[in-house]
Specification:
Layout lengths: L7 E10 L2 E11 L4 E5 L6 H8 L7 E6 L2 E2 L4 H5 L2 E4 L11 H11 L7 H11 L15 H13 L5 E5 L7 H14 L4 E6 L2 H7 L2 E6 L2 E6 L1 H6 L6 H9 L6
Length: about 250
């Protein structure tokens, strides 16, 4: 049986802002068909990690491979395999959903002959077919978030990175986006950042917890539960992410 290789591998990622380490010696791997949760409170280093993994921020040390391609040495080739939804969706409210996804497909270098089919598939997977001709600016927040995810998957990448994809949504919209992420996780490797442990429990096979830029846990939610030593999972999470005492 052949070994399953990670879709994304990062080693020894570090980043300093002035005198402060915002990310320190982080290692992670993402495999096909899994959803990896990146957890931690605000300021833990989640967005910095995602910006480095997507090539939008330089690291001070370390390396990232996406489908075997070095992100820092050949970013164009690596990003062919990558889809990214930042915390603020990169939407154009004056475009229709279909127009925007056609633009996204071309920017992701989908061959011209395949653009129409790629857009139709993204519309279908994200349940956007009925609003394809509507202006993005006239859609609800939930539908706009679906459009943001659609642009991240329109080129059928192996790796999808989603930064707080349910932030600011109402409960019904959250359920809908979570269902979409679960579906995507069956055929892609997905990294999902959140500071809500219940969201990670609902969606992720593995979790990686950051505190002040350092990894303090990596494993399954069940493994985390076993390490809680009688505490509730929420109490254990709070303990792991509590800021270190300053002497």
């Amino acid at each position: 049986m052949s070994e399953i290789l990670p879709s994304l591998r990062a080693r020894n990622l570090s980043r300093r802002h002035g005198k402060r380490m915002v990310l320190e010696a982080l290692d992670l791997e993402l495999y096909p068909g899994e959803v990896l949760g990146l957890l931690g409170p605000n300021g833990a280093g989640k967005s910095t990690t995602m910006r480095i993994l997507t090539g939008n921020l330089a690291s001070d040390s370390g390396d990232v491979e996406i489908c075997g391609v070095d992100l820092f040495e050949d970013s164009v080739a690596a990003k062919i395999h990558l889809g990214y939804l930042p915390e603020i969706s990169p939407l154009y409210p004056e475009l229709t959903v279909s127009e925007y996804l056609h633009l996204a497909a071309r920017l992701h270098r989908v061959p011209e002959s395949d653009v129409g089919a790629a857009v139709m598939q993204a519309l279908h997977r994200c349940a956007l077919t009925e609003v394809a001709r509507r202006l993005i600016g006239n859609l609800s927040k939930g539908y706009q978030q679906r459009v943001g995810i659609a642009q991240a998957i329109v080129h059928a990448p192996a790796v999808i990175i989603l930064d707080e994809p349910t932030a600011g949504l109402d409960p019904l919209q959250i359920r809908e986006i979570r269902a979409l992420i679960t579906e995507l996780g069956r055929s892609h490797g997905v990294i999902l950042s959140t500071h809500f442990l219940p969201e990670a429990e609902a969606l992720c096979g593995r979790v990686l917890i950051l505190r002040q830029g350092r990894m303090v846990f990596s494993g399954s939610v069940e493994t985390l539960r076993q390490q809680c030593a009688g505490k509730s999972l929420e109490d254990c999470f709070v303990h792991l992410t509590r800021p270190e005492e300053i002497a």
